Structures are given as structure tokens and as C-alpha cells.
Amino acid sequence: MATSSRTRLSKTQPQEPDLKSDPSTYFNMESFLLLLFLTASLLILPLILPPLPPPPSMLLLVPIGLLLVLLILAFMPTDELIPGLPNDVALDCLARVPHRFHPGLRLVSRGWRNLLTAPCFHQHRERIEATEDLIFLVQALLGKNSGGGGEKGDGATVSSPEAYGLSIYNATDGSWHRLATPKPIPLFAQVAAVDGKLVVMGGWDPVTLDPVTEVRVLDLKRGEWRIGASMVVARSFFACAAVAGKVYVAGGHDAWKNALQGAEAYDVEEDRWLDLPAMGEKRDECKGVAAGGRFWAVSGYGTEGQGRFLGAAEWYDADAGKWKREEGMWEWEEGVCVGLAGGRMWSVECGGGRENMVREYKGNGKGWREVAPLPARTRVRPSAAAIDGGERVFLVAEVEAEAEGMEPNRGWILEVASATWSRLEIPSRFNRFTFSTAAVRL
């Protein structure tokens, strides 16, 4: 049986955070409150006391000096993260707070903000096994307004049916919430995660329905959005996956629904796109997956072969700077591929006249072996992501109702070692069509 990745520690243990490396950042709240009280007193007392003769000019320095002393005291360094608690205990308390509450913690003081955004803080979360597996989902939203991509109670406006937003499923504690965004996510945008950063790219403009080159990057540790360098080519329905610190995109189609053959890679740290050689074939609606340290563009179809998915795939050889082709990679109508630990690739497939199934690729064009059937009545639009170091697979998909019509999405977790499914409870406001997903461990 596979050992949980939470119990595996690297040979080099993360360093304990140096809580005194910048003591001036911790705020002395008691002195600050005293300062506010005395300042208010100095302003109010002259209004309620009888007028006094003008004091000598030297006496004016007394209240001014007192205010200056209190101001200095208010911002004097303090080594305490939480007053009255040893710093190691306070650090453990803060490190165990779920990630969804970190935006509020960063507002408490400059010291807390600096701590929560420091690499050592996240290393400490890993050391004490307080990390969380977060799954980001690009979902269609429902509502009357077209505001900032969220729902009431989540710090954003309810969105229209033509708007997309970012939802988060915490696979560690089972919670769901909506991530407020500066503006709605483009329709059919792709999402990928690299080194604690979430990259949202491509898709359709919600108004014109034209493909966009827009890129947005969310620093998950700092909670800050920025506009990234635009893609070279506007595209939608393209393959996308993160490999070795870069986000690769390939194929898709342009504004005239012409299948694309080109590819590019985004260096998140340098904020620039690298032009890659074109693939051997045009591939619209190809599936992107990172497996074995490679970026794969699986299946897809050409402009003239609308909906007739190709059986071959291509993977990018970064060392040689060229694409390599493999046959026998796709045989069904709908599905998605995920990369697992050890370089394995699994497919979650629907349609094609066969039983809906999870299969594992045997490599070198040798086809697939069956792993486990999908949950009953799973039908279309699967979206999946590997979590927990590739030892579990998250899946959402639409299911066929016993009566006519379709039920909302359902969600499951597949345990890779035992090939068994467990059902997830999805709140109604998150029970929407999911176009793309990305998993992050924080």
C-alpha cells in the first residue's frame, strides 16, 4: 500500500522560522491604544474645561513631547507574535489556521503579514503536517449581475450565467468557497499551478466571445493578483499543463474556429512566453497533461475533422526542443488525463460506446489497461486533478438522471492504491459546469 505523502519528509528539513529577524515589524498594540486615548483626551479636554490663561510657550512642549514618546512606544519592536504566548507556540497556532483565513490574518499587523508571506512559514506548515490540498476550479456561475466573479458572502458579486469564476475545494477539510477575483474569469479559461502561483489564461471574452491572450497570476502565499504577460496567440480549448516551473499550452482554436498547431510556454518567474516549435498536427480540444516530466497534448482534431478525435498524442522533448508522437492514445468521445506519482498517466473517459472507465497508459504506444469503472451514471464533461502527491484523484462530472434530463455535477475522490471511489458533498452553489482544474498543496 502506498505511503501517504504527508508522512514523507525530505532529507533537508525546513529551517525553523527566525521570528526575530525583523523585530521592528511587530506592532505594539497596547501602546498604540494608549496613544489614541491620550490624543483624544488632549482634543476633548479643552472643549469641556473652562478657558485658562495662555500658558508659557515652554509648556506647549509637554503635550507634544508626551505624544512623541507614546508614538515611539507604539511602534517599538516586540518579539511576541501573540502577546502572552511563546513564539514557537504562536507560530504553531498560526501555521494551523486554514489557508482560506490567511487573507484576514495578513491584515492583523505588518508582522503577521510578513510572517505569513515568508517561505519559512510555509516550510513550517509542511514540517508540522499542516499543509492543505486545494483544488481550483474554473466554473460557470449563475446570478443576475456580472460583477467580480463571486457570490454573496464570498466578498464578490453574484455573476451572470455568461460569467465564470474560481471556486476552491479544500480536499483536506472538505470545505468549498468562492475566490473573489478583480473581474470575471474569461469563459472556458484554463488554469494551472506553478510554485505556489495560480495561472489563469486564455478562453473567451464574456462580451465578444472572441479568444483572448489574457493571463492573470495569483500568488497564493501573498494573496495578490497581477496581470501576466499576454500569450503570443489568442486561443481557447487548448491543452495546458505545468511542467518544471513552466506552463505549457498547445493547440486549441482561434477566433475563426481554425484548429491551431502552435505551442508556447510561460515562465512564471520571468513573466514571459517562450515560443515552441509547432506540433506535427493541428489539435483543437486536445487534452493537456504533465506526466513523467513531460508535457503531453493528447488527441484533438483538425479544422476539417470537427469532433473526430485523433488517436495519437504528442509530447514535448524539452532537451531536444521538438515534439515526439505516440499512437494509440485516445479512443473515446469525452475524457481527461491526469498525471500521477511515478510518471504514470491515467485517463478518465466517457462515451465511445464502451463502459466509462479509468485507465492507465502502458507507455510507448502500447495502449491502456483498465483500473476502475467510473461511478454509476457518470456521463459527460469530466474534470479531474491529482492530489496528495498523486495518490488520489479528484473528479467532477455530470451524471445521467434516472428520469429525463441531467442532474448537476457530482464529485468523487479516487484512492489510487485501492482503486475505490468515495462520494463528495458539493454545495448547490458550487454544483456547476467545471471547465478546468488545478491542484495545489500549500
From TrEMBL:
Residues 1-22 are annotated as: Disordered. Residues 1-15 have a biased composition (Polar residues). Pfam families: F-box, Kelch_1. Residues 85-125 form the F-box domain. One of its GO terms (biological process) is regulation of phenylpropanoid metabolic process. Keywords: Membrane, Transmembrane, Transmembrane helix. SMART domains: FBOX, Kelch. The keyword Magnesium does not apply. Coiled coil: none annotated. GO terms for cellular component: cytosol. The keyword Transmembrane applies. The chain crosses the membrane at residues 32-52, 58-76. PANTHER family: F-BOX_KELCH-REPEAT PROTEIN SKIP20, OS02G0208700 PROTEIN. This is F-box domain-containing protein. The lineage of its organism: Eukaryota, Viridiplantae, Streptophyta, Embryophyta, Tracheophyta.
